[in-house]
Design brief:
It holds the Pfam family Response_reg. It is built from eleven helices and six strands. It has helices spanning 10-22, 34-44, 62-73, 88-95, 113-124, 132-138, 144-148, 153-163, 168-175, 179-192, 203-212, and strands spanning 2-6, 26-31, 48-52, 78-83, 102-106, 128-130.
């Protein structure tokens, strides 16, 4: 696995590199700015890019914007974003570009080496790894498990494919149904999960997060 790391804190950046190399992984480049990591991704074509959310010059959302740009330039690149604390808007912005090969973790997970490595490998394999704290805060007042029980088996199939990052046409092809049928299922999913068009969130992303938070979902 070839990895690029973007982190402006030199201790964390080098610590991550040492940890991953000790696990036999190939850290091909490190960077301390968003522009630096995008240049490294273009040059080295890594399997995974690990990025801090906040980097120079403004220390706001450079990492998220770099992650979105990296996915635009090289759609096959898996991205694992690290944040010091839960930033819900950043998480939903990132997941809006598709959830396949995507992770959003709190930095404290890095210290839990087994959990961090599991998330890294999951993302590298095309899966999704969203920090439980992110999901917990997004749904602190929501009984998402009860809402998921409202879905039919076919609606759960559609939601599972949405969580893989598939668009409506790809879902239709996978399930051998029409685009119109998929659109109807998604509208029903939004209704049963109480996701209103007036909500200030991306309903597709929120529906996927409901699915990821379900302990009963299929692996």
């Amino acid at each position: 696995m070839r990895i690029v790391i973007a982190e402006d804190d030199p201790l964390l950046r080098e610590g991550l590199a040492l940890l991953l190399r000790a696990e036999g992984l190939d850290v091909v480049a490190t960077a301390d700015t968003a522009d630096g990591v995008l240049a490294a991704i273009d040059e080295h074509e890594p399997d995974v890019a690990i990025l801090d959310v906040r980097m120079p010059p403004t220390h706001t959302d450079e990492g998220i914007r770099a992650a979105v740009e990296a996915r635009r330039r090289r759609p096959g690149t898996a991205v694992l974003v690290l944040s010091a604390y839960v930033e819900q808007s950043f998480a939903t912005d990132l997941l809006a570009v598709g959830t396949s090969g995507l992770g959003y973790l709190l930095k404290e997970r890095v210290g839990r080496v087994a959990e961090f490595l599991d998330a890294l490998h999951r993302v590298a394999s095309g899966g999704t790894a969203v920090d439980p704290e992110v999901i917990g805060q997004l749904f602190a007042r929501s009984s998402h498990a009860d809402r998921l029980q409202r879905l039919t088996p076919r609606e759960r199939d559609v939601l599972a494919l949405m969580a893989e990052g598939l668009g409506n046409r790809a879902i239709a092809e996978r399930l051998v149904v029409t685009d119109g049928a998929v659109h109807k299922h998604i509208r029903s999913i939004f209704a049963k999960l109480d996701l209103s068009p007036a909500d200030q969130v991306d309903r597709r992303v929120t529906a996927v997060l409901h699915y990821l938070a379900d302990p009963q979902r299929r692996p």
